[in-house]
Amino acid sequence: MPPVSRIVRSVLLICALAICVGCRQAPPPAVGGYPDFADLVERVSPVVVNISTLPAEPAVDDDAQAPPETLDPEALQEAPEWFRRFFDQQQQDGADDGAYPPEQQSLGSGFILWDDGYILTNFHVVRGAREVVVRLLDRRQFTAQIVGSDEASDLALLKIDATDLPVAALGNSERLRPGQWVLAIGSPFGFDYSVTAGIVSAKGRALETEQYVPFIQTDVAINPGNSGGPLFNLAGEVVGVNSQIYSQSGGYQGVSFSIPIDVAAKVARQLRDTGVVTRGWLGVVVQEVDRDLAIQLGLDKPEGALVARVLPDSPASRAGIQEGDVILEYDGAPLPSSSTLPHRVGITDPGQTAEIKIMRGGKTLKLTIEVGTLRPEVTAAEPQPVPTAAPAASSGNILGMSVRPLSADERRDAQVLAGGMLVTEVVDGAAARAGIRAGDILLQLSGQEVDSRARFDEVVDRLIHGQTIPVLVQRGRAPRFMTLDVPNAAATPETSPDRAP
Q1: Quick one: which of 144, 150, 215, 385 is 20 to 30 A from 33 by CA?
Q2: What's the pLDDT at 470?
Q3: Is the pTM value of this prediction over 0.90?
Q4: Is 154 part of the annotated catalytic residue set?
């Protein structure tokens, strides 16, 4: 029988080997209760690059000269006003020294995606650039070609003339969990290879600037120059592309956003292979479901995406989706909010079939839809004002508003193909409390289409006093459902558009 010490040594050796097998996924050793990132940073830093650009020649104005495009606060979505002041101060300091201020450069970060010279960064880092310069950790410097860019996801793919480069290992952003440690490496304010760390605060954040990106929210310190740089997990895998911060002061305030690597890698592959990015498309305009709408639509809680418009000759119209439907699931995945639908549809390959679960009239239905291709011309249009006209008589005084038919020009400008009545006047009453304004187009009232004054009067006459009803209106070119409380008979406004004192 072998000595006990030999058995103990054998057991310890087996345990050590088992630990080494999974060491790539294990977190760095803790120091004082916190992870030690030193070995991780040393290992992954070679895949990170510094990016600088020379902006396109600005147009000269006799009165004023606009700042370069790369410093436009609309293009730079992270601390835009502060970033501009930083460069203004830099110019001022140069002038005080008697030296001519150097040509401004936009600074950003990126990382090596493929070993033959492909680099991923943010679109806003290279937007409007006439020259892009990439610098590696070993101080080698290359002029990069912009292979392609995608403004909708704020991503751009660059190519440098180099081979056998260190390549970033890509992780799975879907597996990220709030509370996990992550770290960023980039060039804030030009300070190369600065490291910041924090935790994942949330996933699937929807921002108005990029509706096709379910952002990762972290508390990692991100500043101008970090844009386009990688967000690493503790295994050294890239799980996101640092993109934006939310700030009321112009500086970092603890809220930063990264593009999930699952989204970014798919965009990068399409840019490399075809130069363009294709996205799935349903052809619907959706909105959030609030508590009042959930009650009216027969939902147990606010969830899903409420369909406010179905575009004609679209995949949604062919599948039988209607205004007022609530899309609860898309391709087997539940939709906790309307903001989750665009990016889930967007990552679907055009031509693929998806099953959707909807709520209609208090009943759930399942429909099959063939996903189309998103085209720029079918994206949301800018709201356009609808002209108002003199009030027209209407018997719907219980609601406190007057309506009239749309003229041919108004219908064309508002892109309303059929139905709808123009709200010409709103007085203090139910319609005003619901948020309806003069100039809105009334499309549906209590689930019924309104296409004439007679139809409007008919629907209003059937309304139950004290009932709450859904109302579909269009303001400019944006349709939206609202809830309207039908007043009791005793609460009918004494003054209405039809009976002026």
Answers
A1: 215
A2: 92
A3: no
A4: yes
